[in-house]
Write a structure and sequence with these properties.
Alkaline Phosphatase, subunit A, 9-stranded mixed sheet, two-stranded antiparallel ribbon, disordered N terminus
């Protein structure tokens, strides 16, 4: 055997020396293994620019969505679904079968404490809880026959947001931004505007699930600092920050060349780039000084009862103007447990309605006069409704068997009512609209066949509507 020259160490190599010299190699091997996931590699390579605008399946009626999520479940028979029969049986035992409820504390039949009035040319009946929204009746497509699968808040919230009753599935906004990308380069494509309270189920209601992490919802808090760490630390000057960003870009590019694409890495790169641009865009977005006093009054700014949600509605309009694809608004904490009035129905529902009624009407009016309502789909509703029987003497339990949501703009037919509940407002009995149907309709208005908007995961082509869902033709123009 020939001798091969080699360099010998002055002393034997210890185990500590070997591990120290090999550490980077071990890390590289582990990272390469993590990046070798076959299913991740099978997905379209959108990570380089996950928010690049994409074409839907057909010409869309809507290009943006604003979801006004009424956390807790507003009562359909006290808002948009009047039931005179409740007056007839008020205070008497309920004359029909009672479904198992959240707490099974079933009292007598309970009539609505509020009067209903007819609004607009359509004559749409709306309760006195929503006089300002009632003035926009001819823009509303009211669905009175919504049904859901869950009567508990956490599962119900996951279900209305993702079409599944457990955490870990992509949220509505994630599917929309995955399908359409975003027209805004300086803000996230999916934004959640918080008003001080997160729904049961937490941030997983707005997660991206198995979709790339770039599509998860970005939470903006109410107040002067909507995004954490928006101001660069240490007061670094722009040239220094630019140099740091260029260095990070170079290192990221080298890592991608060496190890290949990976969702976690590419999403982090995209998010860091977006975060840099947001340092300029967010302060400008949330500075309402240039809005006219008339506009601020329209949204209820300056009134402590409507200031919080009014500001969120106005920011939502500004986001849509800038091309943000999906904006969700959350209710504020008024001390009445959101819309979840198991007791103190009158006090709690009035406080919640007062906080959102004028701002929502202001949003619809402002979108319409700016020519934005035609392409912006506005969705209003909670995870379920409430029972027509009392819980205790002045409350209502959860009711997923028949409740109300409404749509406006974005290709919907205003001044219409779809479906019906029974004479007590308890069960949907005509043209039932399942949550999966609502999701299918939203995607249809955005230009998608919901059966074709899929993502390969776990060996299956997954979709928002699972294996269900029909488009609700009655709300379409």
């Amino acid at each position: 055997m020939p001798d091969f020259p080699c360099r010998r160490s002055a002393r034997p190599l210890t185990r500590r020396d070997l591990l120290a010299r090999s550490a980077n190699g071990f890390g590289a091997a582990a990272l390469a293994t993590l990046l070798a996931d076959d299913e991740a590699r099978a997905q379209p390579a959108a990570a380089a620019d996950p928010f690049a605008p994409k074409r839907p399946h057909f010409a869309p009626a809507a290009t943006n969505v604003i979801f006004l999520f009424m956390d807790g479940g507003p009562s359909q028979v006290d808002t948009f679904d009047p039931k005179p029969a409740l007056e007839k049986y008020h205070g008497r035992p309920f004359p029909a079968r009672v479904e198992p409820t959240q707490f099974n504390n079933v009292g007598a039949t309970l009539m609505s404490p509020w009067r209903f009035r007819n609004y607009g040319q359509s004559g749409l009946p709306v309760s006195d809880l929503f006089p300002h929204v009632g003035a926009c009746a001819d823009d509303l497509a009211v669905i009175r026959s919504m049904v859901a699968n869950f009567s508990e808040h956490t599962n119900g919230n996951y279900f209305i947001h993702s079409g599944a009753g457990q955490q870990g599935r992509p949220s509505l906004g994630s599917w929309v931004t995955y399908g359409l990308g975003s027209e805004c380069r300086d803000l996230p494509g999916f934004v959640v505007l918080g008003s001080g309270m997160i729904p049961p189920g937490g941030a997983d209601c707005f997660g991206s699930g198995f979709l790339p992490a770039s599509y998860q919802g970005s939470m903006f808090r109410h107040g002067a600092q909507p995004v954490a760490d928006l101001t660069p630390p240490g007061g670094a000057n722009p040239r220094t920050r630019a140099a740091q960003r260029d260095l990070i870009r170079t290192l990221d590019a080298r890592a991608r060349e060496r190890f290949g694409a990976a969702d976690a890495v590419d999403a982090a790169i995209a998010n860091y780039e977006l975060a840099f641009r947001m340092q300029t865009a967010v302060p400008e977005l949330t500075d309402l000084a240039r809005e006219t006093e008339e506009t601020k009054t329209l949204y209820g700014l300056g009134d402590p009862k409507t200031e919080v949600f009014g500001r969120q509605c106005l920011i939502a309009r500004r986001m849509v103007e800038r091309g943000v694809r999906f904006v969700e608004l959350l209710c504020q904490n008024l001390g009445f447990d959101r819309w979840d009035q198991h007791a103190n129905l009158k006090t709690g529902h009035e406080a919640n309605a007062r906080a959102v009624d004028k701002p929502i009407a202001g949003l619809l009016t402002d979108l319409k006069r700016r020519g934005l309502l035609d392409r912006t789909l506005v969705i209003w509703g909670g995870e379920f409704g409430r029972t027509p029987v009392a819980q205790g003497s002045d409350g209502r339990d959860h009711n997923p068997f028949g409740f109300t949501m409404w749509l406006a703009g974005g290709g919907t037919k205003g001044g219409t009512v779809v479906g019906a509940t029974d004479e007590f407002g308890y069960h949907a009995v005509q043209d039932k609209v399942h949550v999966h149907d609502l999701h299918a309709t939203m995607l249809h208005l955005l230009g998608f066949d919901h059966t074709r908007l899929t993502y390969r995961f776990g060996g299956r082509d997954m979709r928002l509507t699972d294996v269900h869902g029909e488009v609700v033709r009655g709300v379409l123009k």
